[in-house]
Write a structure and sequence with these properties.
Elements lengths: L1 H13 L2 H17 L4 E3 L8 E3 L4 H16 L1 H27 L1 H31 L2 E4 L5 H34 L7 H10 L13 H8 L11 H28 L13 E4 L3 H17 L15 E5 L2 E4 H20 L2 H6 L5 H16 L1 H10 L8 H12 L4 H13 L7 E3 L2 E3 L1 H13 L9 H12 L7 H23 L2
Antiparallel strand pairs: 1-2, 3-4, 5-6, 7-8
């Protein structure tokens, strides 16, 4: 099996950049051509249309993220901010022409204040706190140890979120496998399971489920997804074990050995007090979902109170409390942790800087695509669980999975079902809600940009000498290993 994987990698590496560009652009073009040239925007102003061509900057930025590291890696490393800024400007100016400068300013500010700010602050806080915790010992990266690490990390994701579990586990996994030559597959499966699938059991696990909780889905309802998660874990861990065993044997045959004297006899964690700050961050996320529903945080009209920024753009007090708590946790973590722990973790700011730059471009340029999705969602004619599963998942692979989840959740709530889970959006059958939730959480693993932890794990792995697959190379891995699992999910759970 490993030989097959190596062959696939060689074929991927040997493909021309032109073929990669044509393939990816063709896929995006097909998605765009499937939509009408203009659709009615959701909102109060139903006279404004959303031209499909406004999505071009988003597609252009994705193409740059995909191909620039392949053709001009050093140039891309230096000029990422300039390229991102270019695509942002190319989106904002036409958007302002179509909708007016005021609406354009409100759209961008709303995206930055209500979406990007909490996103990057949460990522920053978890990155800082996890960087102050180090796990060391005589455990070597063997197939059995790696399976245990992935299984533990996957279950941990539902407790502290996919981002929290990824940031906490990524460095120990890399460190335990540092002696190995063949290890990129370990981090790929890490992204599949820890950074994505593991977050399906609680609203803490992944933001889409938190949004569902805020709209009336019971907190522990997500435990209904445990059979699906367990099913996927068994399959993927079985496959991973055999892939890793082949790679492990080849590393051993080439004379590579872990630098340990008494394997598995020593293990210790430094910076353990940072667990308090990790819990503080998790509490901040929970509060962000609970506080908006309290009367103290609502005005007479029922809207959430906050600080008015521009027009209807408001930084809500619950969001402000979340940001302050997370930044305070990060600050206290740095003040109370010895610098030597960060040195042993090879801690640098490069990964968080790259994610911050790329994702502000993604968040802003994808707004027209989200408007299209919001307008078209109720008109697509999807009502079966299997249809919702694939539609939610496919779009969550490239767009932010939270608004994608909300669009299809809203759509499901308007279908007029009488039995199921009662939410503020309507009654939704259990199987239909399970399909939407699974698609949003699971299929974020299909691409590097499908979920924020994906890119963070890639960036940290690259910094630590792991030769991660390219953008297209990673998609090939997901096509080979994830899509068959999702097909089985459909056949077993969502038919």
């Amino acid at each position: 099996m490993y030989d097959i994987i190596q062959l696939l990698k060689k074929l991927n590496e040997g493909a021309t950049v032109l073929k990669k560009v044509v393939t990816f652009f063709g896929m995006l073009l097909t998605m765009l051509l499937a939509c009408p040239t203009g659709v009615w925007a959701a909102g109060e102003d139903t006279t404004a249309q959303v031209p499909v061509w406004l999505c071009i900057p988003f597609a252009g930025l994705l193409l740059c993220i995909a191909i620039m590291p392949l053709i001009k890696a050093e140039w891309w490393e230096t000029h990422q901010p300039h390229v991102v800024l270019m695509w942002i400007v190319l989106m904002i100016i036409p958007f302002a022409v179509v909708y007016g400068a005021g609406d354009a300013a409100e759209t961008v500010l709303d995206c930055i204040i209500n979406d990007y700010l909490t996103f990057i602050v949460l990522l920053f806080g978890l990155f800082c706190v996890s960087g102050n915790i180090t796990m060391e010992g005589d455990f070597a990266g063997s197939p059995r140890v790696n399976v245990c690490l992935l299984a533990f990390g996957t279950l941990l994701s539902s407790c502290i979120g996919t981002t929290g579990a990824s940031m906490l586990m990524v460095r120990p996994v890399i460190k335990m496998n540092s002696w190995r030559k063949r290890k990129s597959h370990i981090m790929v499966f890490f992204i599949f399971m820890v950074s994505n699938m593991g977050g399906c059991l609680t609203p803490i696990g992944d933001p889409p489920l938190l949004m569902g909780f805020m709209r009336g889905v019971p907190f522990f309802w997500s435990l209904h997804l445990f059979p699906v998660l367990l099913f996927n874990m068994v399959i993927l861990l079985f496959v991973f074990y055999h892939v890793d065993k082949l790679a492990y044997r080849k590393d051993i045959a080439q004379g590579r050995k872990p630098d340990i004297s008494k394997p598995g006899t020593e293990f210790h964690i430094d910076g353990l007090h940072n667990i308090v700050f990790l819990i503080m961050i998790v509490a901040a996320v929970i509060l962000s979902g609970v506080l908006p529903g309290l009367p103290a945080f609502q005005n007479a009209e029922g809207a959430v109170k906050g600080i008015r920024i521009l027009g209807e753009v408001t930084l809500t007090f619950p969001a402000l409390i979340e940001v302050i708590m997370i930044l305070l946790a990060a600050f206290l973590s740095f003040k109370t942790t010895d610098k030597s722990i960060r040195r042993r973790n090879h801690f640098t700011w490069g990964a968080i800087k790259e994610v911050a730059v790329l994702f502000i471009g993604i968040f802003i340029t994808m707004q027209p695509a989200l408007m299209l999705l919001k307008a078209l969602g109720p008109k697509i004619g999807l009502y079966k669980p299997m249809e919702m599963f694939w539609a939610t998942g496919a779009l969550s692979s490239f767009l932010d999975n939270t608004p994608t989840y909300l669009v299809f959740l809203t759509t499901a709530g308007t279908l007029g079902f009488m039995n199921g889970v009662t939410t503020s959006l309507g009654t939704i059958p259990v199987k239909l809600l399970s399909a939407i939730s699974s698609g949003a959480v699971f299929m974020g693993a299909n691409t590097y940009i499908g979920n924020a932890p994906n890119f963070m794990v890639k960036a940290i792995s690259d910094e630590n000498g792991v030769n991660m697959p390219s953008f297209f190379g990673y998609i090939l891995w997901s096509l080979v290993f994830l899509i068959p699992v999702f097909i089985l999910d459909m056949l077993v759970f969502f038919m």
